Amino acid sequence: MALWTGSELLVSSGPMMMWDPDTLTWRTTNQPPGFSPVPYGAWAAGEAVFYGSRWDPHNAAGAAYDPVADTWRSIAPGPETIAAGFHVMASSGDEVYVFGSYSENTQSQSDAVYDPATDSWRVLPPIPDEFILSGSFGDFVNDEFIIMGENWKAHPTGSPPLVGLAYSALRDAWRTIAGLRDPARDGGRFFGSLAAVRHGEKLGGKDRSSPATRSSRT
């Protein structure tokens, strides 16, 4: 995976390295002792925070990397309710939001926030009961933690509808946001305040949803 630090690009697929776009050069970093970075991470409070498990989502571990000091530290264990194997991580700038997406391996979903300043976690309210999200992706947009995924509770077989949820720290509550007109999709990611979703059944088709306007367009 790759994380933008504000001045360099941190790449963690294989040995950790940093790329400087100003000088077009790479540099190696100290490698994390006793921790293999998983493909889940977020940049917050001047650190790259990694959390999860490649093999056992119910026994996740984490570490944080400071690129200025070129040092690593372990982070506090997450809540036992977090299944961190097929999850979403997003940064508010100061904190890291984690949503444990449902899968055959986790059989659960939950959410929490990690604070690098205090090395502590707090559990968020659960998402509404009418949703079981799988294959989720998300980001922190316009002061909200946005996640999108397939709602298996609404359609447990076939092509479940893609739905969006937003958590507001100010209200300490979730709300639903605009979903997609075509549920068939093959991944997605956020670009600023827009979520672009790649469709799997129609070549070249894209749907874009704006959390700010609660609308979607093709």
Strand order in the sheet with the most strands: 1-2-3-4
Structural class: mainly beta
Average the pLDDT over all residues and give the rounded result.
77
End-to-end separation in angstroms reads: 28 Å
Number of helices in the DSSP assignment: 0
Can you tell me the overall shape? globular
Report low-confidence residues grouped into runs of 5 or more: 182-186, 195-209
Proportion of residues in helical segments: under 10%
What is the H-and-E element order?
A: EEEEEEEEEEEEEEEEEEEE
Beta content = over 45%
Task: Let me know the number of strands.
Answer: 20
* Largest β sheet strand count, sense and barrel closure: 4 strands, antiparallel
Q: Radius of gyration, rounded?
A: 17 Å
Q: Key features?
A:
218 residues; mainly beta; 4-stranded antiparallel β-sheet; 0% helix; globular
What report would you give on this structure?
It is a single chain. With 218 residues, this protein is an all-beta fold. It is 0% helix and 46% strand. It has no helices and 20 strands. A four-stranded antiparallel sheet has the order 1-2-3-4, with no helix packed on it. Strands 5-6-7-8 form a four-stranded antiparallel sheet, with no helix packed on it. It has a four-stranded antiparallel sheet with strand order 9-10-11-12, with no helix packed on it. The protein is globular and about 50 Å long. Mean pLDDT is 77; it is low at 182-186 and 195-209.
